[in-house]
Amino acid sequence: MDTVKKVLVLTFALLLAGDKPLSRTTAINEALERIKINPSKLSFNLTFTDIDPFRLRFVNYLLSHPLKTIDFTDSVALKLVSAKEPLEIVRAASEMLELKATMPVLTKGTYNYPWKSAGQLTAKLKESLDIIYTAILRAEENIKTVRSGFTTAQLDSLYNFLPYLLEISEEETESKAELTVEEEDSISKSEQRLSKGVLNLAARIDRTKISESAMTLIYACDLALKTLQQIDPKSVKAEKAYTIPEVSGDILYYTETPQGAVVIGGAGKTVYSGNFLLIIDLGGDDEYLLSAGGATNSQPISIAIDIRGNDIYRSKEPYAFGSAFLGAGILIDCEGSDLYDSKNFGIATGIAGFGFLWDQAGSDLYRGDTGTEGCGYIGAGILLDSSGNDYYYGHLYAQGFGYVGGCGLLFDKEGNDCYVAQGKYQDKIRRRDHNLSLSQGFGFGARPDFSGGVGILLDDGNGNDTYIADVFAQGASYWYAFGALVDRGGNDTYQAFQYAQGCGTHITIGALIDYAGDDNYLSHSVSQGCGHDLALGVLNDRKGDDNYVIYDLSQGAGNANGIGIFVDEAGDDSYTAKQDRNSQGYGNFRREYGSIGLMLDLAGKDSYIGKGGDESEWTNGRYGIGIDFVPQKQK
Predict the structure, then answer these.
(1) Which of 253, 348, 483, 512 is positioned for an S-S bond with 357, CB 3.0–4.6 A?
(2) What would the pLDDT profile of 441-479 be if each residue is shown by its tens digit?
(3) Which residues pair with 366 in a beta bridge?
(4) Where are the domains of the chain?
(5) Rounded-to-integer distance, Cα 265 and Cα 248, Å
(6) Under 8 Å between Cβ of 626 and 611
(7) φ, ψ for residue 585 (rounded to 5)?
(8) Cα separation of 347 and 292, whole Å?
(9) Between 86-96 and 207-228, two packed helices, what is the crossing angle to 10 degrees?
(10) CA geometry: angle at 619 spanning 473 and 553, to 5°?
């Protein structure tokens, strides 16, 4: 029986069984059975690696049950989009890190609040301050407890060396390009010893208490916002003229507390150039030139709430805007089209801490360098943008990046958005004419000693979005980590070079899921549903007429005992593969076992350049298979 007849027989049998459109699960199971693999027994062998302090149980579970990955990714996305308040999103990030943080309960104490006798402040403003400050006192207890477990020297080591493990300077990139193999190997071993010492120390950090502190503060800020947004900024007058070196412009109130300074800006423009415990700005096009909601080693709690205006946030310092080191940093901007401009480890970054940035409205520009726009490492960095056509620009470890013990989340709820992560740090190991990204839903581990974290980029809504990256990006991961890019609607464009678009490398899981729209995918290799070296890579596109272009080792490719799954569920699609020998449903033989590559198109009239063909079945390598199913008709 020839190939086409086999597919027709399969389709007819499925129709008789239930007369339902072919499901993704049915198609995957059928393809596996055709290459003599029992779907229920498909798993990776994890017995040859030790479990380190940061190994996530759900990552182990998915590696043992790889076919659960798509449903799991859907469940994570659904939990996030169903969240009715920001607290639920922060809690979801904590749960991804398997931290058992309890929900906050705020009870107003008998504390003599510093602004009690401030006559110029309205009752509503004082009430909001009381709520937030009560949460600050609660969070301070937790953070002090966490920090008390370390000596001053140990805290300094964490502060100096945790970010150092990720930083790549431009000078270092240029100099390493000229090193010999022996010199590079010596540097690599030295860096590995340093990372092992620092990360073993970081494993002692009680991330649950840090998470609870952040949740308490975010709960209080969200509660206070309901009152703050009702206040007419013109109804509040300054009681006196304030002279503060770190603040200029429209200042309504300023005071010092044991935890840091509190300042309130008015309806006019205010310029902030310091690091504060709490900023509340009621209006105006403001500028924040050092920090806003940035928690540092010396200011472990920091909150900024800007109610109105088109604002500028610009800093070269780390932990600047909704970012934190060993503490909790929160920035909430309620209205306006804003500019966020930071260098390294700013804009929704948590390193040994929890950082949270929530922009509620406006078309915003986010611009960072390394570790930005949703970067988590021994903690969490969360960027939530609720509306607007936004532009995200970073170079490395950006836009939903999770390193060891961390969760990085970028969640954009609507708009035509553009995400760019490329252009600066040379990929000296693989292709020196390309740059590293490690962004846009990327989970990363410190191989071979420490498992990776969780990196998620979630774009909700029906915007036409653009994703541009280079090497390692767009729902990908490396070493016992989880990376996912989920786009829930719109005609989107995905452009990358290598290790991207639903790719897992070295015992890990990467997934790209696009729910709807006429999409374009362009990458060179090891992409579009590719698993390399005992890893799983998944690309699942559910609706729309899509175009896929690659060079090789992509579109459902398994390499070195990896599993690559590519499933397009509907639409008239086009597929182009320059090298058909190792793409479009490809597997190879390594370590006395095969690899698995599935390329499945479930419906539509499709065109192929490469191995595949419309309404046909083909095999490729050892355990590679492609099936373009015959369209089904319901009675």
Answers:
(1) 348
(2) 999 999 999 999 999 999 998 999 999 999 999 999 999
(3) 340, 392
(4) 84-93+100-149+204-391
(5) 9
(6) yes
(7) 85, 70
(8) 10
(9) 170
(10) 25
d(CA 371, CA 344): 6
Query: 252, 279 in Cβ contact below 8 A?
Result: no
3-state secondary structure of 289: coil
Torsions phi, psi of 255, nearest 5? Answer: -155, 160
- Rounded-to-integer distance, Cα 278 and Cα 273, Å: 13
Identify the DSSP state of 621: B
| Burial status of residue 339 (CB atoms within 10 A of its CB: 0-12, 13-18, 19 or more) | middle
Per-residue pLDDT of 141-153, as tens digits, reads: 999 999 999 999 9
C-alpha span between 503 and 526 (Å, rounded): 7
β-strands 624-628, 617-619 pairing? antiparallel
| DSSP state string for 514-546 | E-SS--EEE-SEEESSEEESS-EEEEEE-SS--
* CB-based contacts of 138, cutoff 8 Å, min separation 6: 104, 106, 213, 216
Instruction: Report d(CA 278, CA 423) in Å as an integer.
Output: 36
Q: Residue 59's beta-bridge partner residues?
A: none
Looking at residue 79, its amino acid is K
Can you tell me the distance from the alpha carbon of 510 to that of 225, in angstroms, rounded to the nearest whole number? 37
Q: Report how far apart, in Å, the C-alpha atoms of 520 and of each of 55, 451, 498, 567 are.
A: 35, 33, 16, 15
**pTM, two decimal places:** 0.94
